[in-house]
Amino acid sequence: METPYTDHLTSIDYEQVYEPAEDSFLLLDALEADLSFIESLQPQVCLEVGPGSGIIVTALAKKLKETLCLATDINPYACKATKKTANHNGTFVESINCNLVDLLRKKTIDLLVFNPPYVVTSDEELKNQSYTNSQITFSWAGGVHGRRVIDELLKSLDSILSAKGVFYLLALRENKPDELIINLNTLGFTAIKFMERRIPGEYLYILKITRK
Amino acid sequence: MRLSTYNFLTSKAIKGVKVGFPLKLTIAKQDVVESEFNPTFIERLLPRLDWSGIRLAAEVAGLNDDIPAELPANVAENEELLKKLHHLLLEIDVLEGQLECPETGRVFPITDGIPNMLLNEDEV
Ligand SMILES: C[S@@+](CC[C@H](N)C(=O)[O-])C[C@H]1O[C@@H](n2cnc3c(N)ncnc32)[C@H](O)[C@@H]1O
Description:
The structure holds two protein chains of two kinds. Chain A is an alpha/beta fold. Chain A is about 35% helix and about 25% strand. Chain A has a single domain (about 25-210), classed as Rossmann fold (3-Layer(aba) Sandwich), CATH 3.40.50.150. Chain A has seven helices and seven strands. A seven-stranded mixed sheet of chain A has the order 3-2-1-4-5-7-6, sandwiched between helices. In chain A, helix 1 (about 20-35) runs parallel beside helix 3 (about 55-65). The longest helix of chain A has 13 residues, at about 75-90. Chain B is α+β, with helices and mostly antiparallel strands. Chain B is globular, with a radius of gyration of 15 Å. The two termini of chain B are about 25 Å apart. In chain B, a hairpin with a 6-residue loop joins strand 2 (about 90-100) and strand 3. Bound molecules: S-adenosylmethionine. S-adenosylmethionine binds near residues 73, 74, 78 and 149 of chain A.
């Protein structure tokens, strides 16, 4: 997969929108490595939750020409950036400004991707962001164990994923990936550590999740 | 917001809403973005789409003559209809307008092509 151009975004944009970093690239690498599997699913609908700059969903949209690519972000600046990035790279991604998958019809997503706000913070820090006007806090503040937003999405996973659906989720060691895998099992999913990488100061995993 | 996306949006997350679909769509400003016709894309997507939502989109876009009341069985061989669906679902881009919950009347504005569907804490 080609890495999309992001030269239209400037340091001013990155004050409001998550700038692609090692975690973004790990997720891109994992999707690239599993591309033949993804293509074999013939996904009708792809959704990236929290696209930020839009770099990941744009790479997917460029590759999956017969897939409708959607993106939902709680940060309106990220929604705008995502549309721009897709456009700048000659493709189309739909941005919807909303929380996770709340507003989507059931069992419709075949390919789900999420690089969540995974940094361990206090729950207050996560809550307070709604009252400050710094949208960028959404990109990293994850609450206790960095799991608040991840756990909220897992609760909706069964209702949003189609029968053949697959979900790629990035997690940090502090997010307790082994516990996530057990929880997913209880919810009726198989989860494996598909890829992992040590980066300065963090150890990251990509979980690949399918229905049992 | 393209009209294919419209087909996937509901207001079910609002407290007390039973179905929340299809949302009432109003278009104030739209763009038509020409895109390459790919019959496989449309054909594959159709089973994922809700026909009543497609019909409603066609009505709002002023294209109801193009879209039959029921999805015909042999749609794969009906290139003319696939082309019309392609135009309706992938080429019409709503830039300004709104979506409205059919049960509560809650309005979600569409600005610069992006629907704002953020709910307040007391709505969920
Ligand atoms: C770590 S950033 C990832 C950005 C991009 N996908 C990447 O990999 O570079 C997390 C993103 O999730 C978004 N986000 C956080 N909480 C969310 C929620 N509840 N619903 C939707 N998006 C959310 C943030 O605004 C941010 O864009």
